[in-house]
Amino acid sequence: MLNAREAVKNLQAYRPPLAGRTGLRLDFNESTVGCSPRVLARLRSLDSELLARYPEREPVEREVAGFLGLDPAQVLLTNGVDEAIHLLCSTYLDPGDEALIVVPTFAMYAIFAQAEGARVIEVRAGENFAFPLQDVLARISPRTRLIAVANPNNPTGAAAPGDVLLQIAQAAPQAALLVDEAYFEFHGETLIEQTRKIENLFVARTFSKAYGLAGLRIGVLAGATGQMAMVHRVASPYSVNAAALAVLPEALRDQEYVGGYVAQVLRNRERLQQELGYLGLHYWSSHANFVLVRIGSGHAEFVRALRDRGILVRDRHSDPGCEGCVRLTIGTDDHTHRLIAALRDLVEELGLRTGFRSEVRV
Ligand code: PMP
């Protein structure tokens, strides 16, 4: 009988709720408007020759490196940040090693680390999801080989200061520190330049969120040259498809489009948070394109009622420390207006008012 590896048998299947997503998609932190029209035009111009060839990543990597202000040897394009996480786990984790994460956080760190046979050490975030620096430092051991931090974090929207993350890199030179900047464009702070100097620091970025290209599957992993050469060894040369490579330079060139969308999201983040305060719903001030809100015991009913009104949001009740919480993605003025109108109705209809009026700053 064929047996999967023990580590794989112990994994729980991860199935994000992708079925039947019709309506206003505020459930996966995607762009609510999609990519730049210039990117779409480039995509439409592709021919069969391009598809017949194996994709060539390097010329596009040079452009991305130029855009990020890094050397080309520091940059690897990946099939989304998901692949970047997978590659780091394959490169650095042996069975029995420890991978340290701060929870609640993005699910894929634990999944890919466990698949390598590593032990996942979960450190709980502090009060109001503040980054628990002292607890993280205390859990670093000689076996710690990977530390993954989403910054800003998903699903909380909390951000850790750069100097705090650098302290961790310094305290664990035997570990790869992944700073996952998937939501960088909505936050504006980055450690990417530090990858030139800090050997165990990796920074990941994605084109799935602000650039509106989640379906194309393209992300970037940046690190120190010597370490990136190791990561390259476990990477497929073809994991980023030809269509994604063909349109990426156009996406980078149309910064006006991305900047315009990000500006709308930031404006609406303020507007939505203010409204949540008025409605007496408890939320955590966000650095990303979503807000985590505590609905309470009616969370599932709330998600269902929004779906009935054509708005999809994500129930995060099962994440550690997120009991009764729902995550709302922020989009354009119109999308936020629709969300707010529905929230006003539901607070009355479902009797959701928690009486908590002031916002919580993290
Ligand atoms: N990192 C974080 C923190 C995320 O929230 C997500 C998407 N939900 C990803 C990575 C995945 O990004 P990609 O689409 O580039 O694989």
3D structure, described in words:
It is built from 13 helices and 13 strands. It has 362 residues and is α/β, with parallel strands linked by helices. It has two domains: 6-29 and 256-349, Aspartate Aminotransferase, domain 1; 37-253, Type I PLP-dependent aspartate aminotransferase-like (Major domain) (Aspartate Aminotransferase, domain 2, 3-Layer(aba) Sandwich), CATH 3.40.640.10. Strands 2-8-7-6-5-3-4 form a seven-stranded mixed beta sheet, with helices on both faces. It has a four-stranded antiparallel beta sheet with strand order 9-10-13-12, with helices on one face. Helix 2 packs antiparallel against helix 10 (242-253), helix 4 (58-68) runs parallel beside helix 10 (242-253) and helix 5 (80-92) packs parallel to helix 6. Residues 357-362 have low confidence and may be disordered. The site of 4'-deoxy-4'-aminopyridoxal-5'-phosphate has 13 residues, from helix 5.
